[in-house]
Design a protein that fits this description.
- By secondary structure, the protein is an all-alpha fold.
- 58% of the residues lie in helices and 0% in strands.
- InterPro entries: NqrM.
- It comes from Shewanella phaeophyticola.
């Protein structure tokens, strides 16, 4: 019984540490294999027009890519 309790406490400790890390980083959770991007699918929904939040993210991503291309050393 004590082994079960120790394992449960360790598991809870890891969940607590992961949640604190998630809260501090304020970053979306991502998969390690790339998810839908690997399959060539840019968005998860089948909408013709993306929502405003998606449009804003796409615009920021495009601006970031342009800035990186302008400030490239090589």
């Amino acid at each position: 019984m004590s082994t079960f309790l120790a394992a449960f406490v360790v598991l809870l400790l890891f969940f607590l540490l992961m949640s604190v890390g998630y809260i501090v980083k304020k970053k979306a959770v991502e998969g390690s294999c790339g998810g839908l991007g690997v399959l060539g699918i840019e968005k998860a929904c089948d909408c013709d027009n993306p929502c405003d939040a998606r449009k804003l993210r796409m615009q920021k991503e495009q601006q970031r890519k342009e800035m990186l291309n302008q400030n490239r050393i090589i």
